[in-house]
Amino acid sequence: MKTIASPSFRPLYDQIKILITQSLIAGEWRPGDAIPSEMELASRFQVSQGTVRKAIDALAGENILVRRQGKGTFVASHAQERTTTRFLRVAPDSAVTEYPASELLSVERARAPDETLRLLELRAGSTVYIIRRLLKYHGSPAILDEIHLPCALFKGLEEDALRNHKGSMYGFLESQYGVTMIRAEEHIKAVAADEFSAARLGVAPLTPLLRVDRVAFTYGDRPVEWRRGLCVTTECSYINEVS
Amino acid sequence: MKTIASPSFRPLYDQIKILITQSLIAGEWRPGDAIPSEMELASRFQVSQGTVRKAIDALAGENILVRRQGKGTFVASHAQERTTTRFLRVAPDSAVTEYPASELLSVERARAPDETLRLLELRAGSTVYIIRRLLKYHGSPAILDEIHLPCALFKGLEEDALRNHKGSMYGFLESQYGVTMIRAEEHIKAVAADEFSAARLGVAPLTPLLRVDRVAFTYGDRPVEWRRGLCVTTECSYINEVS
DNA sequence: GAGTGGTCTAGACCACCCC
DNA sequence: GGGTGGTCTAGACCACTCT
After folding, report:
1. Rounded to 5 degrees, what angle do the CA atoms B61, B66, B67 make?
2. Which among A94, A140, A181, B8 has most CB atoms closer than 10 A?
3. What pLDDT shows up at residue B46?
4. Nucleotides of C under 7 A from a protein CB
5. What is the pLDDT of residues A74-109, one digit of tens each?
6. In the predicted model, is pLDDT for residue A114 greater than 70?
7. B31 close to B79: Cβ distance less than 8 angstroms
C-alpha cells in the first residue's frame, strides 16, 4: 500500500475514503449501522489506524458518518432525531422550534420537465413522481413543496405509504428505498405568489414568497431529487451561516 | 503542558487554537502575513508539531488561516483575490460571474436602532455609521445595502475614503481598521419593494425582493457589523450548499 | 539544498460506554 | 474489564516553493 506515484498523487487516506464510500454505495453498511472499528478497517485495508482515522474524519465532516466516543462510528441516518431537520433551513422566527406538520396534497407520475432531466442527469423521456405537499408551523401553512423523484430509482412509490409515514421525506426515502441524501444545492429567489400557491398557503395572490430550488445528492454525489419550495416568510426566515 | 483535569476536559490542540486566536486578536500577525512555522509554534507552546497542526487545521477549516504547501501558513485576508467574494452568495444566473460594481449612496452617523444595538451587543445610546450603497451586475442594479458599523470601532470613517477604495467593503474595513470578518449569520425573507428601494433598484414598487439580514463577526466571534441587503432576483439567485 | 506544509506510521495513554 | 473513539507524541519520509 506504499506505492505512490508522483504525478497525480493521491493520499492514502483519500483512497481509503473512496473505499469506504463504495461500501456505503454498495449497501454493505446501512444508515444507523455501526461500521467496523478503526482498528478493524486498518487491518482490512493494510494501513495504520491514523490513516483510517483521517478518512473517517473527512466523512464525518461531510455528515456522512457520525462518530460516538466509546461506542463506534455510525452511518448517518435521517431517522435519527436531530438529523431529520438537517436540510430544513426555514424556521419560525419565534423561539419555539417545532418540526412542521406535513400534509400530502398529491402524487402523480409524469414525464420529467426539461430542467429536472438536466439537473438529475436523466435520459430524455424519463418519468418522475411529482409530489406536492404543504408544511405547517403551529398550524399555519408555511411551505408549499413540489418534489420530483425519478421513477426508475423509486419504483412503485405509493401515495398511501407516503401518507402513512411519520417523519421527514428523506427518512421515508431512506427506509423504503435505501437512498440517503447527503448534500443539496439550493438556489433562492423572491417571487410573487400565483393564484394556486396563494390559495394553498392562505395568503393573497402576489404576496412575496421565498422560492427555494434544490437538487439533493446521495452517496458519490449522484443527484436524485429536484424540489421547489415556496415559503411564506412573514413569520419564518431562511437561516444560513456563511464563512 | 500536560496538566489535564478530568472534569471539563479541554484538548491541548484546542488550547493552542485559542492562543493562536488571541495572537490574531492582538494583531501579532496581520491579514496576509505568514504566521510562524509549525515547528516554531510547537517549540513556543511546548507541544508536538502534530498538536499545533491540529489547531491550525481547525482554523484553516474556518477560513481564518490559509495553508500553502511549501510556503507557510497565512492569515486569511479579504484583499486576496478569490476571498473578496467569500460572503457574497448572490450571483447572476448567467454563467459569467463578474464582481459587482459598487455605488456609494450615503454615509451618515446616527443613534443605533434597537435591533442593531441588540445584535451587535452595544451599550444603549451607542452610535453607528449607516452606509447605503448599490451593487450592480453588468450595469443593472441588483442589491441595495444598508450597513451599520459601530462608530466606536470604526472611528472617523469618511465618505471620501470609502468612495475611493477599490474592492470589497470588508477589504476596506480590514486594511483601514484592522477588523477582519470571519463569519456571518444571515436571515432571509421575501418582501415587497417599498417606494424608495424600488426607485433605487429600478423596479416597480411591490416587486418581490430577497431581504438578506446579516450579522458579521470578527475574531473571537465578536459581532461588529449589521447589514440588510435587498436583492432583485429576476436574474440573480442566492446560492447555498447545505449538508 | 533548505525550509515549509503534507502524509504515514507506531505506540502510549485518556475519556467514554456497556457489560 | 474490555472495547470504542480521542489525544498526544516522535520520527521518517514525501511534495512543494524559493533561492
Report:
1. 100
2. A181
3. 96
4. 3-11, 14-18
5. 999 998 766 678 899 999 998 777 789 999 999 999
6. yes
7. yes
CA distance B35 to B175: 18
pTM of full prediction above 0.70: yes
| Structure-block grid coordinates of residue A237 | 426566515
Rounded to whole angstroms, the Cα distance separating B112 from B88 reads 25
pLDDT of res. B83: 63
Q: For chain B, what is the mean pLDDT?
A: 93
Fold type of domain B12-75 = Arc Repressor Mutant, subunit A (1.10.10)
Whether residue B237 and residue A63 make contact (CB cut-off 8 A), yes or no, is no
The Cα A173–Cα A164 span in angstroms is 13
Instruction: Pull the grid cell for residue B3.
Output: 496538566
Q: What are the per-10-residue average pLDDT scores of chain B (243 residues)?
A: 54 96 97 97 96 98 96 93 81 84 95 97 96 94 98 92 90 94 97 97 98 97 98 97 93
Taking residues A211-224, report their average pLDDT: 97
Q: What was the pLDDT predicted at B220?
A: 94
Query: Domain boundaries in chain A?
Result: 12-75, 90-238
Out of A62, A241, A243, whose CB is closest to B243? A62
Chain A hits for B194, Cβ within 8 Å: none
Q: Do A210 and B189 touch (CB under 8 A)?
A: yes
List CB contacts (< 8 A) between A191 and chain B: 190, 208, 233
Options 3.40.1410.10, 3.40.50.720, 3.10.129.10, 3.30.420.40; CATH of B90-238: 3.40.1410.10
